[in-house]
Known about the structure:
single chain; mainly alpha
Amino acid sequence: MMRLSHLAFFGLLTLAIASCGAQRSLRQADEAYHLALQTAEQLRPRLQALNLQKNSLNVQGRALFPDEIEFIREVESIEESYRLWEAGEKKAASGKDSPAPAGPKALYRHQKEWLAAIRHIRERVDAQAGRFR
């Protein structure tokens, strides 16, 4: 009888430990998600400023210098990366065509990758900001 109660206790203890790990992973995934959204929100006006710089170079009515052409291409590439990141966000929010990651750890890995992607876009914006004024 004592042995059965020990087995039940260890089973419950294992379940409790696993549950704590899952809760931690879910909390971390939630933090990464909100940090990614906050980063994207802060990035939007900076992307708009780069777009304005790009457009002002495009309408000058003269041949562009090689560094101006490079700037325009990089801004267009950044804008495309951001559009793809944002489309992934909307697709995930709607639940269409994107299977949810299986389990708390997989969700956390997914959100970390998503956060890393928007941070990489931010680094690219930082590298271009203020090049042409």
